[in-house]
């Protein structure tokens, strides 16, 4: 299983290994070599039918549900060129993509507002029923499938904002939570040493 991620504001894709996937919102114990983290909120779906070079009009056949999550990136590696960025994408348990997902018709009902919080304070909000979430997902499936074969279980994700600072060297424990229309979605701690 791969986690294929479109970077915010970019035409480029990256691939995170399945060892980065944290679907149960378990606490993240930051390795000693990492002193600070950035984050990117994401919209994602799981592929339910294998395919390659999928046209956008047919992309809806390749997923059934969607959700939101958050990707963590160690700042210590980001500034060290291409190899450092690649290493930043491979740290275990840094792709917080919850197992609970929502039906395709949810945005049509005017619902689907995603909010992220750091220690109870809002750090990101997205959607309100006016954004065509399904169109974004279909476009992404079509584009990434022109580059790579999608297998059942692969995750296709789109960063919804550029990387933002999440922790600093003075932080010891940070609680990250998220919800959709007030319904809990994510809730975990980041524990720095």
Secondary-structure map:
Elements: E1 2-6, E2 13-17, E3 21-22, E4 28-29, E5 37-47, E6 63-74, H1 75-78, H2 81-88, E7 95-96, E8 102-103, E9 114-118, E10 121-126, H3 133-145, E11 155-159, E12 164-165, E13 173-180, E14 183-191
Our count of helices gives 3
Which blocks of ≥5 consecutive residues have pLDDT under 50?
none
Number of strands: 14
Rg computed from alpha carbons, rounded to a whole number of angstroms = 16 Å
- H/E series: EEEEEEHHEEEEHEEEE
Strand content: 35-45%
Q: Could you report the average pLDDT, rounded to the nearest whole number?
A: 89
Helix fraction? 10-25%
Structural class by secondary-structure content: mainly beta
Question: Could you say which overall geometry the principal axes of the C-alpha atoms support?
Answer: globular
Q: What does the main sheet amount to?
A: 9 strands, mixed
Describe the protein in words:
By secondary structure, the protein is mainly beta. 13% of the residues lie in helices and 39% in strands. The strands form two sheets. Strands 1, 2, 3, 5, 6, 7, 8, 11 and 12 form a nine-stranded mixed beta sheet that branches. It has a five-stranded mixed beta sheet with strand order 4-14-13-9-10, with no helix packed on it. Strand 9 and strand 10 form a beta hairpin. The radius of gyration is 16 Å and the shape is globular. 35% of the residues are buried.
